[in-house]
Each structure stands twice: as structure tokens, then as C-alpha cells.
Design a protein that fits this description.
It is a single chain. The chain contains 17 helices and 27 strands. By secondary structure, the chain is α/β, with parallel strands linked by helices. It has 3 domains: about 120 residues, 3-Layer(aba) Sandwich (Udp-n-acetylmuramoylalanyl-d-glutamate--2,6- Diaminopimelate Ligase, Chain: A, domain 1), CATH 3.40.1390.10; about 240 residues, Mur-like, catalytic domain (UDP-N-acetylmuramoyl-L-alanine:D-glutamate ligase, 3-Layer(aba) Sandwich), CATH 3.40.1190.10; about 160 residues, Mur ligase, C-terminal domain (Protein-Tyrosine Phosphatase, Chain A), CATH 3.90.190.20. Helix 2 links the parallel strand 6 and strand 7.
Length: about 550
């Protein structure tokens, strides 16, 4: 049975129409970049096929689906064609290699259903999915947020502001999906990506339209922009947070990483937002504003901008508690006094970006203010309290810039700080040593542990981080520990802490599993930290 969230009804389109959309002509009728292979004798002809859904996953296929069989890192999606067809798929989109796989596995010259063959099927999948689901982004205002850090928090703040203003809001991002202020179980959202694949994303937006959603806050990853997952989406507003090192396992250079993000803002890009809102507090933001040509700009560091802040005040005197008040000055020079329960100047920047994006869709700062005042984000500076006399926090920071921002926010003279973290396997290896260095420059105790090692040697990952940390401290033997078991590492940090200290568990945030060697076991930093604190109190 499918696990993907689908709209109850879709008008569907004829396969002939979809084939024409990508320039596919009947096989054997002449040269063309794309073609359509007819089904075997006795099966329905191309003209008789009507497509009512799209899926990348054979296990999610239902009657009336177009199955997108794309080449993968280890297996071609066409390997699963028989399962998709058995579940009800009525047509296949693939490449020439995929057709060869289908013929080999099924032992036939003609496939059991018509096959659209395209040299780059992923490049047309977003547009086809939007066609099949009736272009749902034309019926809701989609606010897309991209950048290295702050996407999740900004999206949550946008949703909070929308709900406070009486809008019916949707949220799509790293932590999950929400529709009209209700969480959607992960079991019915296909995949665990920050930005879902195009078929799941278009289907999800169609569900939101059915349920009366009028505005959607969505995280937009660089992978999604580069791989075409958001092709076919009409963005009302695009927001840019910042850019620092991340994902260089996927993007060959920082320049390529920037260019992927720029697809949401460059007027010459087919996925550009109708309005760009850009934080110009780093060099990449200033470059992005120029690329967008007519961006609304925001700043919390004194850069010239349309929106800026004044009079930032930490209300209880302790920046770690998170209660901050500030004046947001809009392009007309009007000051709006606002309050958030999120610590750190970077969260003021996230809030200001959210305000400017909300303003672009008709939600004023005064309307949004009650939502921003109470908004919180799972696994982002999330305080775990079990009666202890020190601060214990879980955060998702998993790159050097984010880790530095979190540790600097929570560090206070006179209080010691311990940080427990690792780095994910099969991801950008170049950020591991800098993360160790950043941690050692700020924290009093650095405990390097396993994150999600995936298919890499966990010890080798930790060794690089430990090396970075050791090089940045005068006493690495006392201040840098290598504890492979994450549960044990958390317990050690909790046992080390004294009154007034700070313990930060970084890297996994909201995640509820730990992946190693192809297996994911249940593991939630928040639960583990709470358990360690409870054991301490016994």
C-alpha cells in the first residue's frame, strides 16, 4: 500500500498530452530527443492511457500512476518497473538505459505499459508532475526559503505568523510537514528529504489545496534546486538566509553551491520566485541580492537594507534563555516592536527575514507578532529540563558556521560549556576538521562521538574531527574526548556539568534515528539527554 500523501481526486491527463509536453514522439517516426515506446500487444494503446498520479517509488504506486524510473547511484529505478505496474502504474518515464533494463528483466521487446523515453527524465519530471496534479502552486502562495542555515527556523516563523494572521497555512521542510496547524505523520510523506522529490511535492501541494491551505512555507534545499525537484512550482516569494560551507560532497565548489541557490532568485531561471527577499549580512547574500536584480533586502548587522533592526534587548538578561525584543524597521521607516523566544542574533535575522516575506503576501508585522512571540522549532536550541542546575540543549547544528553560532550564543563568561557532536558519513568530509576546530575554540569540553556514519568508518570520521579540535586547544588530552557511543558521550557530558554550566548536544536535532552500515536504529538526542538528566537526579 502506498505511503505517499495524495489528493483525493485528480483530473488526470492523457498520456498523449504528457508525451507532447516533453516532445516525445512515437518510436520509429523520426529523429527526436524523446520518444514513446508502445506497450505490448493486447495492452492499452498510448491514446487510451490516462495518468492520474506520479511516483518515483514502486512501493507507492497506485492505479493510474506514471512511474518515473530514474537512474540511481547504485540501482536503476527501472529495476522496479514490474512491481510498479503490478501495483497499477499505467505508464513509465525513463531513459534509454531504463528501457534496456525493462526489456532485460521482463524478457520482452515491448514493455507491458507505454514507456516515455527521455535523455534526461529528471529534468522533465517536475513539469510533468505539476501537469498531472493540476499545478497546485498556482492556487496557493508558496514562500520558499533557502540558504545554508536558518531555513527550518525561518519557515516555522513564517508558519507561525500566517496562523496568527488567520491564514490557513502549510509547512514543508526538514522536520516534517504540517497542514493547517496539524502535523502530518512521516509515514504518509514519501521520503525524508528537506524538499521532497517532485512527484511527492506536487501531490502534497495538491492535498494542501484540497484542505483549504492558502499559503505554504517551504524549505528549498540546494539539492532540490539542482536536481529539479521544485521545477513546476510557482514561488510567490523566495527568501535567502546565508551561505557557508556545506554539501560540498554534492556541489563541487562553493561557487557551484551558490549557483544552485541562485536558481530561486535569478530572473533568468525558470524556478525564480516572483519576489526575492534576501538577507545581506554576508557576502553571498549581497551577491544574491544583485543577482535577483530587484530584491527586498534585510539586515541585522548594519548593512544598508530595506528592513533592518534596532534596539535588540535580551529581556531576562541571559541571552541563553532566548527571550529577545527588537524593533523591525520596514522600508517605509515604520518601527515595529516584536518579541521572539529564540536566542541569538542569528534568530533575530531569521525573524526579520520571515517578517519581510510575510509582508510580501499581505501579513503585517502586527498580525504576525503573536505567532512569532511563541514560536519554537523542534531540535533547534531545544532546552531539555529535568530539574538540573545547568542548561542542557539539543541543536541540529551540523556544519562549522552553525556550530559556531550556537556555541557563541550559549557561551557565557564564568560558565563552562561542553559540546557533544560528530559528523555524518557519506557527506562533505571537508567540514569535519573545521567543526572540531570551532568546537575547541569555544567549548571547555569537546566530546566527539558518532553522528550518522552511514557507510563510512565511524572511527575515521571521529579521528579527523578530533584532530581539528586538538590543534585548536593547548590541552587536548583533557579537553577533547573521543567517545564512539553517542549515548555514553551524552551521559559523560551530563556527569561533567556543574551548576550554571551548559551542555550542548549538536548535529542531529529533531532526528529520531541513527544510521550506520545500512541500518537505522531508533535514537533521539532529546530523549537520550532527558534520560541522562533523570539518571543524574537519582
Amino acid at each position: 500500500m502506498t505511503s505517499a500523501l495524495r489528493p483525493r481526486t485528480t483530473p488526470g491527463l492523457s498520456l498523449t498530452t504528457l508525451a507532447a509536453r516533453i516532445g516525445a514522439v512515437p518510436a520509429g517516426t523520426g529523429p527526436a530527443p524523446a520518444r514513446i515506446e508502445p506497450a505490448s500487444a493486447g495492452a492499452r494503446g498510448v491514446a487510451d492511457v490516462r495518468v492520474r498520479g506520479v511516483t518515483l517509488r514502486a512501493q507507492d504506486a497506485v492505479v493510474g500512476d506514471l512511474f518515473a524510473a530514474l537512474p540511481g547511484a547504485t540501482v536503476h529505478g527501472a529495476e522496479h518497473t514490474a512491481a510498479a505496474v503490478e501495483a497499477g502504474a499505467v505508464a513509465v518515464l525513463t531513459d534509454a538505459d531504463g528501457v534496456a533494463v525493462i526489456r532485460r528483466l521482463l524478457g520482452v521487446d515491448s514493455p507491458p505499459v507505454p514507456v516515455m523515453v527521455h535523455p534526461a527524465p529528471r529534468s522533465v519530471l517536475g513539469a510533468l508532475s505539476a501537469d498531472v496534479y493540476g499545478h497546485p502552486s498556482d492556487r496557493v502562495a508558496v514562500l520558499g526559503v533557502t540558504g545554508t542555515s536558518g531555513k527550518t527556523t525561518t519557515a516555522y516563523l513564517i508558519e507561525a505568523g500566517l496562523l496568527a494572521a488567520g491564514r490557513t497555512a502549510g509547512l514543508i521542510g526538514t522536520v516534517g510537514v504540517r497542514i493547517a496547524d496539524s502535523d502530518v505523520p512521516t509515514s504518509v510523506v514519501s521520503g525524508v528529504l528537506t524538499t521532497p522529490e517532485a512527484p511527492a511535492l506536487q501531490g502534497l501541494l495538491a492535498v494542501m489545496v484540497e484542505r483549504g491551505v492558502d499559503t505554504v512555507a517551504m524549505e528549498v534545499s540546494s539539492h532540490a534546486l539542482e536536481l529539479g525537484r521544485v521545477d513546476g512550482i510557482r514561488f510567490a516569494v523566495g527568501g535567502f538566509t546565508n551561505l557557508s560551507r556545506d554539501h560540498l560532497d554534492f556541489h563541487p565548489t562553493m561557487e557551484a553551491y551558490f549557483e544552485a541557490k541562485a536558481r530561486l532568485f535569478d530572473p533568468d531561471s525558470p524556478t525564480h520566485a516572483q519576489l526575492a527577499v534576501v538577507c545581506v549580512d554576508d557576502e553571498a547574500g549581497r551577491a544574491m541580492a544583485q543577482r535577483a536584480r530587484a530584491a527586498v533586502t534585510v539586515s541585522v548587522t548594519g548593512q544598508p537594507a530595506d528592513w533592518y533592526v534596532e534596539d535588540v534587548v535580551v529581556l531576562d538578561g541571559d541571552p541563553r534563555a532566548g527571550l529577545q525584543e527588537f524593533s523591525a524597521v520596514d522600508p517605509a521607516g515604520v518601527r515595529h516592536r516584536l518579541r521572539i523566544r529564540l536566542p541569538g542574533r542569528y534568530n533575530v535575522a531569521n525573524a526579520l527575514l520571515a517578517l519581510a516575506m510575510l509582508d510580501a503576501v499581505g501579513v503585517s508585522p502586527e498580525q504576525a507578532a503573536p505567532g512569532l512571540r511563541t514560536a519554537s522549532v523542534p531540535g533547534r536550541l531545544e532546552v531539555i529540563e529535568r530539574g538540573q542546575d545547568f542548561l542542557a540543549v539539543v541543536d541540529y547544528a551540523h556544519k562549522p558556521g552553525a556550530l559556531r553560532a550556537v556555541l557563541e550564543t550559549l557561551h557565557r563568561p564564568g560558565a563552562r560549556l561542553a559540546v557533544v557532536f560528530g559528523a555524518g558519513g557519506n557527506r562533505d568530509a571537508g567540514k569535519r576538521e573545521p567543526m572540531g576546530r570551532v568546537a575547541a575554540e569555544i567549548a571547555d569540553l569537546v566530546i566527539v562521538t558518532d553522528d550518522n556514519p552511514r557507510d563510512e568508518d565511524p572511527g575515521a570520521i571521529r579521528s579527523v574531527i578530533v584532530g581539528g579540535a586538538a590543534a585548536a586547544t593547548r590541552d587536548p588530552a583533557a579537553l577533547v574526548l573521543d567517545i564512539a557511543d553517542r549515548r555514553a558521550a551524552i551521559a559523560h557530558a551530563v556527569g561533567w556539568a556543574r551548576r550554571g554550566d551548559v551542555v550542548v548536544i549538536a548535529g542531529k536535532g529533531h532526528e529520531t534515528g541513527q544510521t550506520a552500515g545500512g541500518t537505522t536504529r531508533p535514537f533521539d538526542d532529546r530523549d537520550e539527554l532527558a534520560r541522562a538528566l533523570e539518571n543524574l537526579a537519582r
